[in-house]
Amino acid sequence: MKLTFSLKRLASTTLLSSIVAAAQTSPPSAHTDAANAPNAIRVLLSAELETTLASQMVGRITTLNASLGSAVSKGRVIVAFDCSEANAKLQMAEADYAMARETLETKNNLRKLEAAGDMEVTLAAAAADRAKATIAVSRTLIAQCTVLAPFSGRIVKLHAKPFQGVTMGTPLVEMVSDGPLKLRLNVPSKLLRSLRIGTPFEVDIDETGKTYLAKITAMNARVDAVSQTLELEARIDGRPVGLLAGMTGIARVNGP
């Protein structure tokens, strides 16, 4: 009985040891090979344009035409503020300008009759110019009541909510542009002599598990003295589907 139990225990131990040994000696994945390959460099996918739209005024949001991941076209109103005060100031400025023009016209007529001096005409003209400038200021303030998309793209982050009160400079939304993405990477400076604009290389993207062919499109004019690396930008050939800004991967750049 004891001998049978010992044999079973020995067989189980031997089987477990075999499984562990097989796992330790199993061939690494292709992605692991890429990560451990010589000249393997981490890369980041980023949009051509990305920006944070901020408030240019103190006010209350009345409209927020944005949701996470939504597409927006250039010139579309993304955020609108309560603009009643700015509109009222514009009406006041237009009324002041109309009155200033009437005053200037009257002074000019009196000057022809030698009933008003040159100084009075000059002051009336200055008042009219000032009133006209006030109209321009009011219209500028009204323009700040709406935040327009500076380019076509997608919303990637919302900082504000409808009916929220904000101050000048408060972040509202973040957006990235449509179109081809660019790769950003830092290569060891020792590879500089073998790299040029247009140099091809392969890149494995972690999130898709696929390999893509890319080409260098820009090279920094300065090597970082601390890390001894050079910043590069590149583009993946074609427009493969499934790639998003923020994805990362591994580039295999051929060295000298």
Blueprint of the fold:
Blueprint: H1 2-24, H2 30-36, E1 40-46, E2 50-54, E3 59-64, E4 71-72, E5 77-81, H3 84-112, H4 118-143, E6 146-148, E7 153-158, E8 165-166, E9 171-177, E10 182-188, E11 200-205, E12 210-219, E13 229-236, E14 248-252
Antiparallel strand pairs: 1-10, 1-14, 2-9, 3-5, 3-8, 4-7, 5-6, 7-9, 10-13, 11-12, 11-14, 12-13
Helix pairs in contact: 3-4
Notable characteristics:
2 domains; 33% helix; 31% strand; 256 residues; elongated; four-stranded antiparallel beta sheet; 4 helices; Elongation Factor Tu (Ef-tu), domain 3
Question: What can you tell me about this protein's structure?
Answer:
- It is a single chain.
- The protein contains four helices and 14 strands.
- By secondary structure, it is of the alpha+beta class.
- It folds into two domains: 49-178, OB fold (Dihydrolipoamide Acetyltransferase, E2P) (Beta Barrel); 180-252, Efflux pump adaptor protein, beta barrel domain (Elongation Factor Tu (Ef-tu), domain 3).
- A six-stranded antiparallel barrel has the order 1-10-13-12-11-14.
- A hairpin with a 4-residue loop joins strand 11 and strand 12 (210-219).
- 18% of the residues are buried.
- Residues 1-8, 10-16 and 18-30 have low confidence and may be disordered.
